[in-house]
Amino acid sequence: MRLLPRSLSGRLLATAAVTIAIALALAAAAIGHVLERFVMSGLDDRLDAQIAVVARAVGPDGTLDAAKAIDLPPFDQPGSGWAWEVIGPARTLRSASLRGADLPLPRDDGPPWPRERVRERPHPLEGTDASGLRIHYRIMRLPTLRGDALVVAAGPRAIVDRPIRAAMLPLLLSVLLLGGFLAVALVVQLRIGLRPLAKVRERVAEVRAGRVRHITVEEPTELLPLVAELNALIDANEAAVARARGHVANLAHGLKTPLATLKLDLAGGDARLRGQVERMERQIRHHLGRARAAEPGAAAARVPLPPHLNDLIAAMARIHADRAIVPLVDLAPDLEVRCDSQDLDEMLGNLLDNAWRHARTQVRVSAHAAERVMRIEIADDGPGMTPAQIAEITRGRRLDERGEGHGFGLAISRELAELHGGTLELGSSAAAGLTVVLSLPGGSA
């Protein structure tokens, strides 16, 4: 069972809410206790004042002088709940409010109270009267020559309970309002405090998209070590990819010369072996392209599209001059894409070469920007591809593995497009051939 939410803000909110609730409960209890002590001290002061007055009636020899036992208001009012009693060695004096009756004293298994627990200074006791009402007592012992005299003063406990109950409702409302204010303040604090994390996330997304190379955050200072480590990780990853690209390039260049020699030696010889050599050359070009596209920031540069397309179209016209294919080009002069220029040439070269090899009379090339995406359409009027073949290409099947076809160049172009955040879609053209749509991030993305 998960006790804390998964998110950082949820955990901070939950722990802070529990802490605030506990703190408010403790504060309410402490304030209530202080309020009770304050009200109780007022009651004790009134009872102690009466005890001080009637204590003068106790003589050193244990005799009681009724003339000195004066009733302070409201001890002189019968039924008021306020009363006092002096229990001497020989007789007992009572307040006028008792009308001669005994003061209901708190009992403890037999005697009214254990006399050894009664001190020579007033101390409190709690009890109830005959009707069950709570009474607060103050009791003091006075040593005399004939034994101890006990002075008792009592008042209704409701004197304390009523103001406390009356004060608790506003106190609880105040605590609830304070809790609500603290909750709002906590939410605002979390939003402000966690906002730099969202900024770091945006900077990381920009690095991943290739728009910037490093994360630039100046505050808060607690995040600067994390940002420094992320930038160091980006640099280390870029260096590792650069080394890997260098190794791949060195391997590819090391294989190019022997393959070219082998290809010349096989000229006019076994067609199957020549096909295998050409396949090896395409594999080398393919992995070189992937190594270039994997470089961090490879898609950061804006590349003008028309010059690349026009140069490649002119090259295809020369390479396939014997086929007399007519190119129909529809390009605006200011189109741009975010892509490595070599990867762009690799993708467009593969797609145009496929179109020229399979077209009957013409190849249509157009491009337009839509929602920060550049869509490049290359359509031929050749035999096209069946839906089953398109599905195989979409799943990654290379039709070139079974002979002459579209698949290998399309697979390379699709992988390079995906590495740059783009897509490659296949469909039927209006001239019954194949239409390839290459989508790449636009220059304004």
UniProtKB/TrEMBL annotation:
Single GO biological process annotation from the record: phosphorelay signal transduction system
HAMP domain segment(s): 191-242
Cellular component, GO, one term: plasma membrane
Histidine kinase domain segment(s): 250-444
Chain intervals with Basic and acidic residues compositional bias: 105-125
SUPFAM superfamilies the UniProt entry points to: ATPase domain of HSP90 chaperone/DNA topoisomerase II/histidine kinase
Known catalytic reactions: ATP + protein L-histidine = ADP + protein N-phospho-L-histidine
Protein name: histidine kinase
Source organism of the structure: Sphingomonas panacis
Lineage: Bacteria, Pseudomonadati, Pseudomonadota, Alphaproteobacteria, Sphingomonadales
